[in-house]
Specification:
Length: about 525
């Protein structure tokens, strides 16, 4: 309960309130600040609600690692339904996580009484209000817990009977409460809120005084007049014309509401409290400095800089305090943020397209991320056909250098399109599409060998000499691979060598070759074939 005047708060008479207040519960603004009273401030309530609700909706994941270090869901473990679905008989997983995160935000600590079966597995997690439990140090340097029950009695609990989640701590045992640490800042906000409430309640020009040319008969008459004036000018009578008799005059005190910058003070307190909880102001309704360009970035920063540390705190505590000793090395706890990082529809589409086309995401995995059922045949990753590892490329080059062309139906390059052989009895056609694709694939392998050799030559002192020696040997390779004459192969090698030696930026030139040179080589060989036919 807020007191209406500072004098009542500071009354140190034998019957005054000062002597009955707990130590360190009032801020300098004269307002009682505790976890309960702080929630009456809309900014505090909004911050706690954003943090607790955001964390409560995170899916709980429990994984095992297999021999290949892949994560396998461990939904059959006893811990999974306890955290994900129902930790106790009267709360579901969402309500339980929301409440505990609220305790952490307001008081810096959250407690659960653990109940186990004969195998040591936890069967129930019952939350304990932080105000009803305290840590009791022991002479041996350890500590235990003392819980106050509803009937006023107390019970002693050992450390293995209590799961204690703590926030930022200065001693490693008790977490620090944001409300306690930032008492003055929150107290200022509460004082401003209380002042505003009194201002609108006492709308009869608060802070003014009435001049009476005479005197009242007695104190009772003066009090009666004051009460009648208040009743006539407040509540439903606000803004009505006041009537003063007997030559009375109303005098307004100097400082007005806007002179005290009341609204600016309240606006500052919203940003200040959001800063304490590390919550972007737009998430608690303060859009004064929000734009379309920075809200999305602030939302991402909220996930990475605010919610991720909270999730890591939970994960580390669950793994250390709830899992059995044999499970700690095999199991991994995770709260999944993927639904918050998907972005809008356009961003998700680009993300899925990149993952599927580059082979690190299957189509059914993309469907699962969109909450769609899997379809048959979509569990295999797609392989890009225009890329290959360096090792595979070198193996293909060595095989072709040794005069061992790939078997029909296989690609000359594991990363190039596979061209099937023509059906039996079907004659080959010089300009057929399948043959053009095959020639282009072989040309791509030839050019890739050139770019790899030139990149290696760039790291030697005599790069130009090394490039010349490579192309002198490369002529026979081009002729055998492309099936062209030695003259055409020499023409191609001389042309490539000259372009490489004249290039001012060899890396850019090589990247251009990888894109366009295979088509040029294929066209050169095709032109030779046309001349032979003519």
């Amino acid at each position: 309960m807020f007191l209406s005047s500072r004098s009542a708060m500071d009354d140190r008479s034998p019957w005054g309130n000062f002597w009955f207040e707990p130590v360190s519960v009032r801020s300098s603004a004269g307002v009682r600040v505790s976890a309960e009273t702080a929630m009456r401030l809309s900014a505090v309530y909004a911050c706690v609600r954003v943090l607790s609700e955001t964390f409560a909706v995170l899916p709980f994941k429990l994984y095992r690692r297999d021999a290949n270090n892949a994560k396998i869901p461990a939904t059959d473990h006893w811990l999974y339904p306890l955290i994900a679905r129902q930790p106790n008989e009267y709360q579901n997983g969402f309500e339980w996580r929301e409440m505990l995160e609220g305790h952490l935000c307001l008081r810096g600590n959250a407690y659960n009484r653990t109940y186990t079966n004969g195998r040591g597995e936890i069967t129930e997690l019952v939350p304990i209000h932080p105000d009803n439990i305290r840590v009791e140090p022991l002479v041996n340097g350890g500590y235990r817990y003392r819980q106050r029950l509803a009937d006023g009695s107390e019970i002693v609990l050992t450390r293995d009977q209590v799961w204690h989640l703590r926030g930022l701590s200065s001693d490693g045992v008790m977490g620090l409460s944001v409300i306690e640490v930032a008492r003055e800042s929150i107290g200022m906000g509460l004082a401003a809120q209380e002042y505003g409430a009194r201002f609108f309640r006492n709308d009869a020009r608060p802070g003014g005084w009435i001049e009476h040319p005479g005197t009242f008969k007695d104190k009772a008459a003066r009090d009666t007049f004051r009460e009648s004036w208040q009743n006539a000018q407040t509540g439903g009578n606000r803004h009505k014309v006041g009537v003063l008799e007997f030559g009375m005059k109303f005098h307004e005190l100097g400082m007005k509401n806007n002179d005290a910058q009341f609204l600016e003070t309240r606006q500052f307190q919203v940003a200040d409290i959001a800063r304490l909880f590390r919550v972007p102001p737009h998430l608690i309704g303060d859009l004064s400095k929000a734009t379309f360009s920075n809200i999305e970035q602030q939302s991402l920063e909220f996930i990475t800089n605010t919610m991720t540390p909270w999730a890591e705190r939970w994960e580390a505590s669950i793994e250390a305090d709830l899992l059995l000793e044999g499970d700690q090395e095999e199991l991994e706890v995770e709260f999944d943020f993927s639904r918050f990082l998907r972005g809008d529809q356009t961003a998700r589409s680009a993300y899925y397209q990149s993952g599927i086309q580059n082979g690190w995401l299957t189509r059914n995995e993309a469907r699962a991320s969109e909450n769609r059922n899997p379809l048959p045949g979509l569990d295999e990753p797609l392989q890009p056909l225009n890329m290959v590892t360096v090792k595979d490329a070198e193996e293909d080059d060595e095989a072709l250098d040794a005069g061992q062309p790939p078997a029909p139906g296989d690609s000359t390059d594991k990363g190039e399109p596979q061209t099937p052989p023509p059906p039996p009895g079907r004659p080959k056609k010089q300009g057929s599409a399948w043959q053009e694709r095959l020639v282009l694939a072989v040309a791509g392998r030839v050019v890739r060998k050139e770019t790899q050799a030139l990149r290696r030559a760039c790291w030697t002192d005599g790069g130009g000499k090394a490039a010349g020696e490579f192309y002198a040997k490369h002529r026979a390779y081009v002729a055998s691979s492309m099936g062209c004459s030695a003259e055409t192969a020499a023409q191609w090698c001389d042309q490539q060598l000259a372009e490489a030696l004249l290039s001012s930026d060899i890396e850019t030139t090589l990247r251009d070759w990888e894109d366009a040179a295979p088509a040029h080589l294929a066209a050169l060989v095709a032109a030779e074939g046309e001349n032979d036919e003519a």
